[in-house]
Amino acid sequence: MKFVNTLRAALLGLAAAGLSTAAMAQSYPSRPVKLVVGFSPGGTIDVVARIIGEHLATKLGQPFVVENRTGANGMIAAESVARAEPDGYSVFVSNSSTITLNPTLFKDLKYKPQSDFAPVTTVISVPLILAVNPEHPQGASIKSLKDLVALAKSKPGEVPYGSAGNGNITHLAFELLSQKAGIQMIHVPYRGAAAAQTAAFTKEVTVIFDTLSAVPHVKAGKLRALAVSSAQRLPALPDVPTVAELGFPGFDISFWVGIFLPKATPAEIVDLLSREIIAATNVPAVRAKLEPQGSILTQSPAQFAAKIKEETDALAEVVAKGNIKAD
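User: That's the sequence. What structure does it adopt?
Assistant: Structure tokens below.
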């Protein structure tokens, strides 16, 4: 009899919890929602968060307020959301590095991306642009990716490339290219993508994997674009082929911005935000604001989770083969 009473109490507790979760999901959101960003205002991640937050506030009737918690390549913000109450009121807006790259570089992470977060959707994908300064003594002769590979093979260890820092996605892009092409170049790390781009202009390095800030310089002829790092061509530079098209199938390394919730957040809330954010990217006014930040890319929570696992595994392999260490 004692066992029956205990079982009955447990079942009633589960039922009550289920009803409470369902009620919470149905009334969501009933107060302001925090969009936690791990980087400073004005950057791509922050801008995307504000665009999406503005639309969600209008659609769902509650403020979606951006909170910038900077530091440690997004790790401080990530940890804060991973430990937050899983009620949908703390949302993590993250870049790809914080989720898929940091776990391959840092052994003491205080969050586990694949077990601490519920993926909601990606919003945009930002390819890297492989570019040379046409006035650089080496760059002048590099008209294509084929030329770059040929030069690197003829002069192993003599072609310098700039990156935004050790372990940065731009560093990994070059390491992946080197592994696939069988070449060896000189890595020159800088403190950020802007500094690496400046190094290309001042002829300190021959080649860079640059951000979308390179587009106007390419169009002005100050940089020569050889390829883009994503699986698809960049709409802003439609005549520039992908690395994969140029003989390296499967090459696909990009910077994306995605949305996450704490892992135990009710599925109804995860699905609601996923639907609303995906719908937002199809609103012409929202698309017009997002497209300058990158190529719009949305996925279901399941698709996003699969992407994270696949990308993390691929980057871990590149890091291990290249013996890459973080700063």
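The first strand starts at residue 33 and ends at 37.
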